[in-house]
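haha ok so turns out i had the wrong file open the whole time. this is the CORRECT one, sorry everyone. sequence first:
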Amino acid sequence: MTAFGKMLVIFVFLLALVWSSFTVFTFVTRTNWRGSSDRNAKIADDNYKGANEIKKQELATTDDNRSGYAAVAAENDRLKEELKNALSINKNLTKSYEDKLAADRKNDATITAKDATIKTLQDAADLNDKELTKVKVDLDVQTRVAKDSELKMLDAKREAEAFKQQSERLTTRIQELADRFTDLQQGGSKSLTGNPPAPENFRGTVRAYKDGFVEITPGLNAGLRPGTILKIQRIEGGGKFVGYLTIGSDINPDKAVGTWNKPAGLLKPAAADLPKVGDEVVPTK
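then structure:
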C-alpha cells in the first residue's frame, strides 16, 4: 500500500470517529436518538464501505504496481541476457579483429619481404636487360659483318662458279680437240669426213646405256643415218664432255642405238664418266 492510501484510510478512520462522536452527541441531545443512530450507523457503514472500496482500489493499484514491477524486472533480466550475449559477441569480434590484425601484420611482413625480393629480382632483370641490349648491339654489328661477309662470299662463289664453268667448257673443248686430233693422227680423218653428217641443229637425249651401247631418241625421223658421229655432253653440274657416239645399224624412226667412244685420255672411266639417261646428244663441230 502506498503512503497516500494509508493516509486516506487514516483520514477516513478519523472521519468515522468524528462522525461517531457527532452521532453520540446527537443521540444525547435529541429525543429521537434511535433514528439518528440508525442514520449515523448507516453513514458510518457507508463510510466504512467507501474506505473498504478505497482499500480495494489501493490493493488493486498495488497489485498492478507489483505486476508492472515484475514485468520491468523480467524486461530487465532479458536486457541483461541480451547485454551478456552482446558482450560475448563483442569479445569474439574483438578476438577475431585482433587475430585478423595479427595476420595482417604477418602478411605485411611477408609482403615487405617479397617486395624486397621482387626489387632484387627487378634490379637483376634490369641489369640483364642492359647486358642483353649490349649483346644485341654487338650481335647486330656481327650480323651485319657476317651478312657483308656472306654477300662477299656469295659473290666470290658465283665468280668461282663462273670461272669453273668457263674452265670446264674450255676443258671440254680441249678434250674434244684432243679427241679429234687423236682421230686424225690415227687416220680418223677419213672416217669423220666419210660418215653421214648429223642434221643441222640436231638435239637428242640418252634413253639408256649398257656395256658400251647407247640408246638415244630421236632416230630416222630426225635425219640420223647409220655411221653418223654425235657428241654426248652433260648439262648439269656446269657441263661435261662424256664422249662420242657412232650410230650403228639399229635405228628406227624414233630411236637409234650406237657405240660409245670414251674421251681421249680417259683410261679407266668411273661410273660418273659413263653416259646416263638425260645426257644431251648434239652434232660434232
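Residues 185-193 have pLDDT under 50 and may be disordered.
again sry for the mixup
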